Amino acid sequence: MSQLKTMQDENLPIWLPRLAVHGGPRFLQIADALQAAVIDGSLKPGDRLPPQRQLAAQLDVDLTTITRAYDEARRRNLLEGRGARGTYVAAPKVELTSILDLSMNTPPPPDGVDFDDMLKQGLSQVLMRADTELLMTYHLGGGSDSDRKAGAKWLEPMFGHLDSRQVVVCPGAQAAIAALILALTEPGDIILAEPTNYPGLRAAGTQFGRHIIAVEADKHGMVPEMLEEACRQHKPGLVYLNPTLQNPTAITIPERRRKELASIAKRCNVRIVEDDPYWLLADAPPPPIATFAPEQVSYISTLSKCLTPGLRVAFVLIRDPHERERFLVALRSFALMVAPLTAALATQWILDGSADGLMEGVRNEARLRHRMARDILAGRYSGAGDGLHVWLELPAYWNSSQLARAANSEGIAVTPAEAFATGSGSVNAIRICLGSIKDRGRLQAGLQRLSHLLARRPESFSAAVV
Known about the structure:
With 466 residues, this protein is an alpha/beta fold. It has helices at 26-40, 52-59, 63-75, 115-129, 132-135, 145-154, 156-159, 173-184, 199-207, 224-234, 255-268, 321-332, 340-352, 354-377, 400-409, 440-455, and strands at residues 2-6, 13-17, 79-81, 87-89, 100-101, 167-170, 190-193, 211-214, 217-218, 221-222, 238-241, 271-275, 297-302, 314-317, 389-393, 412-413, 415-416, 429-433. It contains 16 helices and 18 strands. A seven-stranded mixed β-sheet has the order 6-14-13-12-11-7-8, sandwiched between helices. A three-stranded antiparallel β-sheet has the order 15-18-17, with helices on one face. Strands 1-2 form a two-stranded antiparallel ribbon. The relative contact order is 0.13.
């Protein structure tokens, strides 16, 4: 990513990054390369960097690009200025919390999007146009008319034009899942799901006294014949599916199988909860299952994975008005409403197009990080190239819990397969999240350390004994 040469006028190393044609903004490539050089030891604290004009000439870029790159590197605490003497690699700051967190599934910060400015502008527009009293009082209807219209617009890529009255605004997907369980099932009922699935389903189901039973899945997701057999055997209250870039396996159920699953739900008269947070991040995803069985499926789409978790806004499409009312009653029993201010901000961003720009930035950054993971993890990477996470099957000499503990000892947090397992069995894999580390250079360092760990056998790993 970078190389060292010798300056002609001084016997000092000059650092030159290699720039890729399609590698993103050049100033960020330079900053990322500089950070990587510091991490791998090519550049050490106290090394002098070339003057900005000289580096601009060497790389054939304008001076502004170098200035922005150095400014970004200073922001990351990589560089320090020493007046007329020049710019030097800074000594590392002592970090009391040095864990590289690859366990939290959040969207990465996108290049080219000033999130602070976007937040200030959005809130300014909300406060200028909205009645502040309405922003600070109760809202009992599953979102205002404007919020539901924004939800219908958010769902347009999946379904086309929608009646906004069919959309309910919720304080996050987890709340939506819990309310659907309460509305559609009774204590003691069975919920069918894939053997490896989102832990939040089990948390809610267990809390409410429902039983989660696994249905066999293959490389294309839940097996239709096994679903039909399970429906006839268990008479489930509902079926839970996360069909696009599934958490954690990153499997996307193909269109043909989605149609088969929808047909089985109709034949067996069972409801499906389609939790679909990653659809808008996927490359050419199939139509949602809800398009093939609109009366059988409740569809959830959250902003947490495409924009930011802090909004705590999700949209639920429920076609049947009686079922929608039952859902609202259930939701109000534990989450009266979305915070009106954040709902208004989400609505503002969706309706003025800001959400589309932010989501496109997240999508592009996620794909860039997938390319990084594919390069570093080499033959072990089996991701789809999009979404927020990678499901990494482990070599036989590691088991997932053992690997997670070893990684934690080396300052890396990952999630073992056991955390996602329904029942006693689980595959030997870990989930790696690519968006939770804000800085791309630190993500690169974490993936490299993880790759080195995977290449070692457990017997060569020894934890400190104190």
